[in-house]
Design a protein that fits this description.
The complex is a heterodimer of chains A (406) and B (371).
Chain A lengths: L6 H27 L4 H18 L17 H11 L10 H14 L2 H12 L5 E4 L15 E5 L2 E9 L9 E7 L10 E7 L5 E5 L10 E11 L3 E2 L5 H15 L9 H10 L11 H29 L11 H19 L8 H4 L4 H13 L6 H12 L20
Parallel strand pairs in A: 1-4
Antiparallel strand pairs in A: 2-3, 3-7, 4-5, 5-8, 6-7
Helix pairs in contact in A: 1-2, 1-3, 4-5, 4-6, 7-8, 7-9, 8-9, 9-11
Chain B lengths: L6 H16 L2 H9 L7 H9 L18 H14 L5 H15 L2 H13 L4 E4 L15 E3 L2 E10 L6 E7 L5 E7 L5 E6 L8 E14 L5 H37 L1 E2 L2 E2 L4 H30 L4 H27 L10 H13 L4 H15 L3
Helix pairs in contact in B: 1-4, 4-7, 5-6, 5-7, 7-8, 7-9, 7-10, 8-9, 9-10, 9-11
The chains are: A alpha+beta (406), B alpha+beta (371).
């Protein structure tokens, strides 16, 4: 048992670190300077992605023939750890290269691979994933966006929601209902959609945090050629499962929530009436409770890396990662706010830039308990796939979608 | 990155698991509960024959010369099996203390017997209610003789020798080594929550005792001893938590209500998913502590306290929810739920409660994040 890189891993890390040292700084600086201007930041991001692709650090696990790095998942994790130290504009490409492009590589046609994959890896295109709908979240297969045959191809009508980077995206993969006369999982089909097609309307959503990272996307008579179909008609659910598998694989990157260093600093500064808060046993017990989850996240990620290092798929411990991490964000933020007493209700505008991390833990912690599989869905997954308990009763299972009520 | 036990360590675990299954540990635990024995002698012998007790003891002292990783594996399997044996007292507390602080003569005299399971050791620390502090310590080592009363001592009735936390006439804490068969030792069984791991009161009236380790460093040695034992106890707790989850899962698949197996209802599914989550959190902390123990890493203090707190929490939660999933039948004397429920509570208290161990976490964090 150890926490060290193997020789091969250490060599890869050293190489990646050397390359980043030689190249990353100017991009990181521009990224910080342009914080308030996403469009300008995107241009920096595209240039960075192109540079990475030339060096083999973009889409590391995809084959070299399509422009990837031809490496292993472990290489990818090591590179990500090293790149993560710099604050680079990589956020525009996470969905596309993490989920959409791997789906096309694994489930798309040769023509689709030729046309979309390499330029996406080089950062020339931004992609979004159009799955969730206002009435289909956890129950994704209950989605209502219709695709009907029309002319040479298909016509899409409907609405998607929570679509990250849709406002900047060139393309998206969209899951649609093509046959409402069969039970819900069987009537779905996936398409590639050009986001500049007439009838695609992207509207940003203002979140609880005040930020806008997600969008609503409306489809009004959007024409899509049949060559944009991924997989067979009616096989969209299986294609979507491929996409979601990649989502899980890219999860657990660390959300940057507050933890013991921030909380200890605060607890040393503030006074709860009888001296520094750090000497208060109520505070100390909450710090200990928080620490257990905070450190468990680091250790869980070490377990996942170990599995990858042995060429295995990370085990069930990974299914609990997001459950622990999102709640940890809320837990850490609550302690920080409680430490400040009434002033804990103030924002970074009053409390200074350091406080942003606490706010982010508070708001994004709540978001992450829902996004990418809600806590409740994850508990179902653990219960069914890890513990082997029976699936839920699904009254809609064998009923044609258009016969369902509600 | 290799944050896992080695294939050899896993094979050893598998071997232990099979041997323990064969030895009917639940029946043995129930025998203790009914008062017909203090620990399972057949299982203790079996563990000795498999080299489990002396796994981390050097060959020169009759052990197998492996590492404390193997000791963690043994504790984990004992915990899973709920085997009623004095492993944490004899090996986790007593043998570890002797290996760490004993003179050559002390090691020669006691360790071979402990490693072979011929002798049983323990540590006598607490003196009644509340947490033991250097100031409140009453037991005294005076001119080579021990005076005082320890309540309660795990396996105190079965033990042949004990590490006793005492003070010298200058009120300096000191660890000392006592042959419990010596004149002046009075032992009294005390009723406790888990008779399958029995407690005792020990009274010392001028008992011959020798110091273990250097005078003046007794409290540091005691602290060190506790954190090393805490790692092994955490593995027993983790094993118990896993066993509780399995028992609950099996029952949830077998028991039907409202027209289906109760394990199909989300109230049960989500409950058990929560148990699984806490168990996995406890597992990674225990593994981290195993690494810190085996490599004597600087993080040992923090890792051991974290493993202790996470495992205590996981075992308590798993045992309590296992009983809950069983419903009324889980509350009967015949049900095995009580064995887990009792063990979880006892192990949450031996070597100190969550209050003490959470405090140790925060102290270590303060050091790690110096102001």
């Amino acid at each position: 048992m150890d926490f060290e890189d193997s020789q091969e891993e250490a060599a890869y890390r050293a190489e990646a670190r050397g390359w980043l040292e030689a190249n990353a700084a100017p991009f990181a600086r521009r990224n910080a300077e342009l914080k308030a201007d996403p469009c300008a930041r995107l241009q920096v991001g595209k240039a960075w992605q192109a540079l990475k692709a030339r060096a083999g650090y973009a889409s590391i696990t995809l084959p070299r023939e399509v422009g990837g790095g031809g490496g292993t998942p472990l290489h990818e994790v090591i590179y990500r750890q090293e790149e993560g130290r710099y604050g680079l504009p990589t956020d525009f490409f996470g969905i596309g290269l993490g989920m959409c492009i791997p789906t096309i590589v694994h489930r798309g046609t040769e023509a689709q691979r030729q046309r979309y994959v390499t330029n996406a890896i080089r950062g020339e295109t931004v992609w979004c994933q159009l799955f969730s709908e206002p009435a289909a979240g956890s129950d994704l297969a209950g989605l209502r966006t219709r695709a009907t045959r029309g002319g040479e191809g298909w016509v899409i009508e409907g609405q998607k929601v929570w679509t990250t980077v849709a406002h900047l995206a060139d393309f998206g993969i969209v899951l649609t209902r093509t046959d409402p006369t069969v039970p819900k999982h069987r009537g779905l089909t996936m398409f590639i959609v050009d986001m500049k097609t007439p009838g695609v309307d992207v509207r940003p959503i203002r979140q609880l945090s005040g930020e806008t990272e997600f969008n609503e996307v409306f489809f009004q008579a959007v024409r899509v050629p049949d060559e944009n179909r991924i997989g067979n008609v009616g096989d969209g659910w299986n294609v979507a499962l491929t996409t979601l598998m990649f989502e899980r694989a890219s999860a657990g990157k660390g959300l940057g929530f507050a933890g013991s260093p921030e909380i200890l600093r605060l607890a040393r500064q503030v006074d709860l009436g009888s001296g520094p808060a750090i000497d208060d046993q109520r505070v100390r017990e909450r710090i200990a409770d928080m620490w257990i989850n905070e450190q468990a996240l680091r250790l869980l990620s070490a377990r996942a890396l170990t599995a990858l290092s042995k060429g295995e798929v990370p085990g069930p411990e990974q299914s609990i990662n997001k459950l622990v991490e999102a709640s940890h964000g809320q837990q850490a933020a609550y302690i920080a706010m409680d430490l400040l007493g009434e002033a804990g209700a103030l924002t970074h505008a009053e409390l200074g830039d350091d406080w942003r991390k606490i706010e982010r833990s508070w708001t994004w912690g709540a978001a992450m308990r829902i996004a990418g599989g809600s806590d409740e869905i994850l508990r179902n997954i653990i219960a069914e796939r890890v513990l082997g308990l029976p699936g839920d009763i699904r009254p809609d299972k064998d009923i044609a979608f258009n016969q369902l009520s509600g | 990155m290799n944050f896992d036990f080695s294939p050899e360590q896993k094979a050893f675990a598998e071997q232990l698991r099979r041997a323990l299954q064969k030895a009917s540990p639940l029946r043995e635990a129930r025998a203790c509960l009914e008062g017909s024995s203090r620990y399972s002698e057949p299982i203790w012998r079996e563990l000795s024959e498999l080299g489990a007790l002396g796994a981390a003891v050097p060959e020169a002292f009759g052990g197998s010369g492996l590492s404390s990783f193997e000791l963690c594996v043994v504790a984990h399997e004992i915990g899973r099996a709920l085997a009623p044996v004095p492993f944490v007292s004899s090996i986790g507390l007593c043998a570890q203390a002797l290996m760490r602080f004993g003179s050559d003569a002390q090691k020669q005299r006691w360790i071979p017997g402990l490693a072979a399971g011929r002798l049983i050791g323990t540590a006598a620390c607490a003196e009644g209610k509340g947490e033991l502090t250097p100031e409140r310590l009453q037991t005294e080592l005076r001119a080579g003789q021990l005076h005082g009363r320890k309540l309660s001592v795990l396996d105190g009735l079965s033990a042949d020798l004990a590490i006793v936390v005492a003070k010298d006439p200058a009120k300096e804490p000191v660890l000392c080594l006592v042959d419990l068969h010596a004149p002046g030792v009075v032992r009294r069984p005390v009723e406790s929550v888990d008779p399958s791991r029995p407690l005792a009161e020990l009274v010392f009236s001028g008992v011959a005792a020798e110091p273990l380790g250097r005078v003046g460093e007794g409290w540091e040695a005691f602290d060190d001893l506790l954190k090393r034992a805490a790692v092994l106890i955490a593995f027993e707790q983790l094993g118990g938590a896993e066993r509780a989850l399995e028992m609950a899962r099996d029952y949830a698949l077998q028991r039907h209500s409202f027209g289906r197996a109760i394990g199909g209802h989300q109230a049960i599914k989500h409950k058990l998913a929560n148990v699984f989550t806490r168990n996995e959190v406890a597992r990674v902390h225990a593994y981290w502590a195993a690494w810190a123990l085996a490599t004597d890493a600087g993080e040992l203090t923090l890792a051991a306290a974290s493993a202790r707190v996470a495992a205590t929490d996981a075992f308590a939660f798993a045992a309590q929810e296992n009983l809950q999933v069983h419903g009324g039948i889980g509350y009967t004397w015949e049900s095995d739920c009580q064995l887990l429920y009792r063990r979880a509570r006892l192990y949450a208290l031996v070597i100190g409660s969550q209050f003490a161990w959470k405090e140790k976490i925060v102290r270590a964090l303060e050091t790690a994040n110096a102001a």
